[in-house]
Specification:
- By secondary structure, the protein is mainly α.
- The protein has eight helices and no strands.
- It starts with a helix and ends in a 9-residue tail after the last helix.
- The mean pLDDT is 79.
Length: 171
């Protein structure tokens, strides 16, 4: 067991500041996790995540102490949560940017490489159509697998090429 398990318990079962401490413990920012672990350790009297979780589950006084400690350090908790959210947003933006760059590189490639993704998407679309017509009862999971490539290819390619994002239309 680790601190993210303790954070999961706090996030699911507690509201208020203790729930925020749980959010710190389940994040990926080392400083935030260590701040949350420090508060839980101070409230439970142990740095062992297993023992801390058992104490929080069985001793209501430990939860009260955690609430008091977290309330006293609420500004620090909020600062750490803001850093966690900012990092998650940056990660999503980088991921989207990387996807768009990959699509642009494929569209601008030389030779046969330029046609690999469109051919994969087309073959998958044809396979999905054939699957629907040759089976008596089409399984939606299999059909979804066949239609994932053409849907993703057409959707991502068109959004990038035609600038169809909300509030970004050019008149």
């Amino acid at each position: 067991m680790n601190w993210s398990d303790v954070g999961g318990f706090l996030s699911e079962n507690k509201t208020g500041v203790a729930g925020l401490v749980g959010s710190l413990l389940t994040g990926n920012v080392v400083g935030a996790v260590s701040a949350g672990a420090s508060m839980v350790a101070q409230a439970t009297g142990t740095t062992n995540p297993d023992k801390a979780l058992a104490t929080l589950q069985n001793d209501p006084e430990a939860m009260v102490r955690l609430e008091e400690i977290a309330a006293a350090r609420e500004a620090e908790v909020n600062r750490h949560l803001e850093s966690v959210m900012a990092l998650e947003l940056q990660d999503k933006q980088r991921s989207h940017s990387e996807t768009q760059q990959t699509i642009r590189n494929g569209d601008n490639a030389e030779g046969a490489v330029k046609y690999v993704r469109p051919l994969h998407a087309t073959a998958s679309l044809i396979a999905g159509i054939v699957y629907v017509f040759i089976t008596e009862s089409a399984d939606l999971t299999i059909l979804g697998a066949f239609l994932t490539l053409p849907t993703a290819y057409a959707g991502l390619r068109e959004i990038g090429k035609r600038n169809l994002l909300a509030f970004n239309k050019k008149n």
